[in-house]
Amino acid sequence: MNIDDKEQSRIYTKSNRRAFLSTLGAVGLTLYASNTRSSELLAQQITAGQSNRSPEDSWTVTLSAPDGPHPPFVSNSRRLLSPPELLDAPDEWIDRSLQWIDYILRTYPPGLVELPPRRPALFRLDEVLHIESAPRKPLVQNFYQQRLQRAIEEIEQTKVSEGMRIWRLYNHGVLIRTPSTSYTIDFVPGIGTEGFALSNEWLKRLVAQSDAHFISHWHPDHANPDVARLFMQERKPVVAPERLFPEDSDLSSYLIVPKRDLHTVHTIPIRGGAGRLEVVTYPGHQGPPVLCNVTLVRTVEGFAVLHTGDQSGDEGEGTDFDWLAQIGHYQQVDVLLTNGWTNDLHRIVRGVNPCLVIPGHQNEMTHAAPHREEYTQDYERMFGLHYPFIVMAWGENYHYMKPAELKGVLPDED
């Protein structure tokens, strides 16, 4: 059964959810309903299989919580359901694995109905990237460089006539293109390890394709002064939280720092005033001390994307969850770009109520291997949610089509 992207997007709406489930059933897929969080359900299933008390009884699967009891064959309790990391591996195995992964991902691109070869390829990529020394290995660096350079070339050659195309860059970075505009969020060159990051030439080529740049917070896997400076040189807007890049006064003063609240809609002119984006900057945090802009960007076609940066923190009354759990009541969000490791991902997704979820922040290579959040855990954390989601690797893209009954445009300015 072949379903094009437009039809896949159309069938999944609140008013047509039954058709969506029926279509998944026709291709042999099932969404499991559960009122229990995936981490709790998985822990219950493990416990249920243990008829006698043993040391295993104390092992705890914690998908978004502090480390818990775990066996010696895994590095922490979050990785109890993931293959243990390799301390190292032969170059021949790494080379053949990365060539196979690249072939599979190019041959079977992301889609609402995930084609079977994709998941084994993503899981093998997890294994390679969880080698502690992976960021320093030329084979891994070349894999990253080739995939990002190919993506930039695709972006240069791609015109979007309808819908919205989303490219996954490094970590939680994306380029989003609609018929009217292109913009980037949290785009950085890579990491500082020699040989890994994109060159300045490639950065310039990507900046040339983007009308505006958004930065969620100051962490270097989300904010890069070289990228921001290239946008400044092109007189393109850079939207960021306060106190960013204080060591460069010219760059810091150039940034657009929007008011962080729940309802103010900011109009960001682009292309010298020839176009515009409408933006809501929600007052998010990564823990109490780090300001993290949770940014809603809406284009003139009405495509709305919500990017969470590294949003995470307390879940109790009076915290960010008070408004995170309400966004879907007053915003129609097309795509939620969430950090996959955030706490209570299910509650955030239900609160935003998007048409599509694309988790991000996988395999951040500056982290120690046990804390490079893997694609494997995306599937574990999304388990039980009644929302379509797509897991994307470096350099991949997806063409999103707005469900027909939600189409609309922003009103023309007087």
What structural keywords apply?
12 strands; globular; single chain; alpha/beta; 13 helices; Metallo-beta-lactamase, Chain A; 414 residues; six-stranded mixed beta sheet
Account of the 3D structure:
The radius of gyration is 21 Å and the shape is globular. It has a single domain (92-189, 196-400), classed as Metallo-beta-lactamase, Chain A, CATH 3.60.15.10. It has helices at 5-11, 17-26, 38-48, 91-107, 118-129, 138-157, 200-207, 225-233, 249-254, 321-324, 327-330, 345-352, 375-382, and strands at 164-168, 174-177, 182-185, 212-214, 238-239, 266-270, 275-286, 290-298, 304-307, 335-339, 356-360, 397-400. The chain has 414 residues and is an alpha/beta fold. The longest helix has 20 residues, at 138-157. It has a six-stranded mixed β-sheet. The chain has a six-stranded mixed β-sheet with strand order 6-7-8-9-10-11, covered by helices on one side. The protein has 13 helices and twelve strands.
CATH architecture: 4-Layer Sandwich
Rg, rounded, reads 21 Å
Which stretches are poorly predicted, pLDDT < 50 over at least 5 residues? Answer: 1-39
CATH topology (fold) name: Metallo-beta-lactamase, Chain A
CATH superfamily: Ribonuclease Z/Hydroxyacylglutathione hydrolase-like
Portion in strands: 5-15%
Distance between the termini: 47 Å
Quickly give the structural class.
alpha/beta
The total beta strand count reads 12
Reading side by side through the largest sheet, how are the strands ordered? Answer: 5-4-3-2-1-12
SSE order: HHHHHHEEEHEHEHEEEEHHEHEHE
Q: Main β-sheet, in a few words? A: 6 strands, mixed
Number of domains: 1
